[in-house]
């Protein structure tokens, strides 16, 4: 392909999920010409990387894409996977987002002193500004130790799990107790499968406390609006696992101890795989206690808010363990336990290899201030804790997109004025 660009646009948005579409909405409102490149389809991750029973863990009222807040009959309900896809697709159509589906960006680099070159398999476009709205979850993260599992055991990443019926007979071992791991373990448990769950340090949150969904209380407390630079952990919070709970069947807590009392087998963090056995750390008690401490800490936070505001609410309570590990084994013979499949709920890695620009820190994270990178005209959007806890969610991504749209508009306006001078 010739190195000469085929056309020029003021702005290119990379990614057609809720972040890229929110960006497109504000650019459209401002009359700024742009295109949105989506490697697969609009709402791809919701459509193709979620299991059949998947639903939101935050209430529908938090679905606040700009210009299209949730207006359905269940604001306190939790949309299922296909409803989420429909919500995002309808949003794109509502303002005629200029999305090019099936067009992935293969390289992003500088073009001259001020512009960028955006390369796809079809064309090369120059742009004055580029918004990378591709999130941070790109490649399934499966540890290399998985290569040592016996060949007769089916393995898949959580993004490939759909339902219990797709798995072979036998017990299922789920590695990882973040949101996906806990919800998949619950899905299998409810389907009557024999489940082993490898438990890490992810925290948990109450679903309903003192008469309201905990998300409602946390929203009132401003938790979703707290800027990352004011969080006690600062940027380190970006590496923290999300709290586990579920919106399934109207919403409820996820209590791993209760699952254990019902037959689910819990293990400490995975340490090694060798000779047909999995070996675990001796941290199961610590991890369960830590998750419960966060749960009760959230209750404490809500209690203080209720007391300070003089709010009438049902009495306070605290979680008390319904089950305790009794010398949990530190190894598991997979054949003896009848394990037929392993699900790796071990998250994703970022892949920014297509970005030929010096904007990343030592860990490969794009350096930015509220989405504005160190390369003038280059922006990121939709990352967890980009600016607030809501940044990677329906509730906050629009606010970040609006902020960047204003910055982009000002930059383009300044360039136009400079050219005319």
Describe the fold and architecture.
- The structure is a single chain.
- The chain has 2 domains: 7-138 and 350-420, FAD/NAD(P)-binding domain (3-Layer(bba) Sandwich); 141-344, FAD/NAD(P)-binding domain (3-Layer(bba) Sandwich), CATH 3.50.50.
- Helices cover 25% and strands 22% of the residues.
- It has helices at residues 18-29, 44-48, 81-94, 179-190, 214-220, 256-261, 284-309, 397-420; strands at residues 7-14, 34-38, 64-65, 68-69, 99-101, 105-111, 115-120, 124-132, 139-140, 154-157, 171-175, 195-198, 208-209, 212-213, 265-267, 270-274, 277-280, 331-333, 339-344, 348-349, 368-369, 372-373, 378-380.
- The strands form 7 sheets. Strands 1, 2, 5, 6, 7, 8 and 23 form a 7-stranded mixed sheet that branches.
- Strand 6 (105-111) and strand 7 (115-120) form a beta hairpin.
- The two termini are 36 Å apart.
Care to give the gist of this entry?
The protein has 8 helices and 23 strands. With 421 residues, it is an alpha/beta fold. α1 crosses α8.
List the helices and strands and how they pair.
Elements: E1 7-14, H1 18-29, E2 34-38, H2 44-48, E3 64-65, E4 68-69, H3 81-94, E5 99-101, E6 105-111, E7 115-120, E8 124-132, E9 139-140, E10 154-157, E11 171-175, H4 179-190, E12 195-198, E13 208-209, E14 212-213, H5 214-220, H6 256-261, E15 265-267, E16 270-274, E17 277-280, H7 284-309, E18 331-333, E19 339-344, E20 348-349, E21 368-369, E22 372-373, E23 378-380, H8 397-420
Parallel strand pairs: 1-2, 1-8, 2-5, 8-23, 10-19, 11-12, 11-19, 12-15
Antiparallel strand pairs: 3-4, 6-7, 7-8, 9-20, 13-14, 16-17, 17-18, 21-22
